[in-house]
# Entry
Amino acid sequence: MRYTLAFLVLGSHINESGFRCLDFSAFGKKIYLLHKREFRMTEITQDQANKKARDLFNKGFVAFERGNLDYAIDLLSACIQIEPAFLQARRFLRAAEIQRFKQTKLGAVSKAMLLLKALPKYGQALALVKSGKADQALWMAEELLKDDPLNRKYLRLAARAAEQAGLPEAAIQTLEVAYEHYPDDAELVEWLGQLYRQAGRTREARQMFEKLCELKPRDLQAMKQLKDVTALDSMLSDGWVETAQKGGTYRGIIKDTKEAVLLEQEAKAVKSDKDAAALIAEFKERIAAEPGNANLYRGLARLYAQRKMFDEAIETLTKALEMNPGDPELDAAVSQMRIQKYDYEIEQLKQAGDTAGAAAKEAERNQFYADNLQERVRRYPNDLKLRYEWGVLLYENDMLNEAIQQFQLSQRSPKHRIRSLYYLGMCFKQKKQYDLAVEQFLKADSEIAGMDADKKEILYELGRTYELMGRPKDAVEAYKRIYQVDIGFKDVAQRVESLYK
# Structure
């Protein structure tokens, strides 16, 4: 899939960063739009990959889970050779390579020998990039990363080759690994920021350029790039892309003045009843003209919800779902709206002093949530986010074996993998299968580079499990890692001091 945002507007100009700048004087602000810039959306999912690649991925994932890293790397490498745009496979391949590399713990001499041995292949790969043979260069870069996955030169090479090969998402993924380990490399930060911007991921781009300005506080070009991407992020966040794509000035871009006024009203942080009523009427007119546009139904439902008209909101989303059966996002939107209605009714009962009524309504809400979630898991068995949410609910209700089954599935989702491993550890800990719990906590720990909130929680539970196993030395080592960065986390200070005594 390709998309291009290119606008030729009278009175506009191209700025130094390659963006067309439109001056919408009605708002006294400038909007920056990508100018004639193409970005190929090439990522394929597991379902889209061919059968052989899927089989290799599944076997490689199982090998990775079991700690058979050499076999996992071989299988996942073969998988991405067949499907270069299979980013989930690349992600687990890199995780396996890094884990193996850290476990090997090479000395200085061994590292020097490894670099020397790889030097000819690195030179060949550079030559391939320069001659435009990006696909071959990318594969050679992957071969280099197998043995030295955190080598900054090899990561740069892989990202450059992926970018030239028309795989910008793979380039981003590679640079994200590089940034995680080399956060103060200004060149890497700027490069990743530019790729994020080209991909339309303006929030991440802004974060990169903010970091770049920290690293190079007197660099005027860095400041300008931050200013440009901040404006672009603001534009996209405010929903201006659709407006700008129509071309022209602000009032000319929109079909007529009435629609301009309605959009201005919709953008207000607080809407009056008059504004909301006008917008609802306008959305109804649009739906009548475009009955198949699910986004209009979502917009109308949001307006209803803002006015606490939950029944109307639910009815609107249900109509959209009937026209788009099997759409998990719409299905989830209907469920969330029902939960919103329950929450509002519970709050109203509490304010009225009806404690018993609020408790009964809360029990009804919780039952609906459980039944609805279970039913959606049945309808969308491959939705790993639902599997994770269902697992959490089962865990909270002490249905540990059933929860374990869900987390074993949901850990395949890169987004939910760490929390799934954490909950697997918690399930085994509750079952007093402490050795299995430790294994899950260690696995989750190894996959988080920095000391974030998840890592602290994982290390804390690892320490608690070691204590339950009668291994105080291991426990204190886990607690100390938290203690060194956050002495106030839970009761970790008391536990460290107690175990030292």
User: Anything to note?
Assistant: The first helix runs from residue 51 to 65. DSSP finds 25 helices and five strands in the chain. The domain at 411-500 is CATH 1.25.40.10 (Serine Threonine Protein Phosphatase 5, Tetratricopeptide repeat). The first strand starts at residue 2 and ends at 5.
